[in-house]
Design brief:
It is a single chain. With about 300 residues, the chain is mostly helical. About 75% of the residues lie in helices and about 0% in strands. The chain has 18 helices and no strands.
Amino acid sequence: MNAHADAGDLNRAMAAAASKAAAGIPGANLLAADLLADRIGDRKAAESYYRAAVDEGDEEAFNNYGCFLSEDDDRAEEAEEMFLRGISTGDPLAMENLGKHYFDLGDDEAAAEFLKKAVESGRNNALSYLARAESRSGRAAPALAHARMAAAHGVRSADLALAEALASDPAADPAEIDVAYRRAVAGSDEGAPFSYGRWLQDNGQPSKALSQYQDAADQGEINAFLNMGNILSDLGDPTRAEEMYRLGREASDPESAAALAELLASRERYSEATSAVGAAEALGLPPHRVTELQDLVTRARNHRPELDE
């Protein structure tokens, strides 16, 4: 009964927002877009309203539409443009979200630049991401300072930020790093299992890393399949490694498909390896990597060891 009531309330809210948008009431287009994107799940209709909100000059729309676009990897540049337009209006939330957008894209220098500005504008919620961007850039001292500030302000994922900051410091005690990661995982910090798994893998604890990567995969981190496959391959378990690479490929990870192709070629399953190369290409593996894989499979297929006489 509650679900039906919630659906009815949502439908009435959407109908009211659409009516106000049609009447030209300021803010109604953005309200309708947010309802469609965040509550109803109709992205096509949501985009139409976001564009209308942007066209009417709704300053909050730039940030919200940027967040919407950033969920699609193929529209990263459009998301960046919207965030920049939001920043031009003086919106510190757009500054923070652009920094997070760059962080997700792996551009840690740009991420740190905008996240620091967001913090200076009063956006303390940017502190965790700022610390993580600095950690990935190898700047342990400011990363630790900002991670501790995040914890002091009760910012989400502060535990993960602290763990990664400690991990980036060569002088840090591994036991302290491990405790920090455990706290982050226990607190359900987003991305903590994958980050912890990577640290465990880098520090000679592959079995524990597998457990964390599995948790990360269960939470939707597709790169975890590749890392699990690599560990299992190193441990001499190609059957389970193949299973992980296949799961990664099914989750649309081109690197998992590439690793699967290499593994299959090494096991003399050339037709399957060729198919895996094709899958990697279809998933967006860079052309030079595709060529390298094709050459690898061809060389493996043509290799004929000389027989002893």
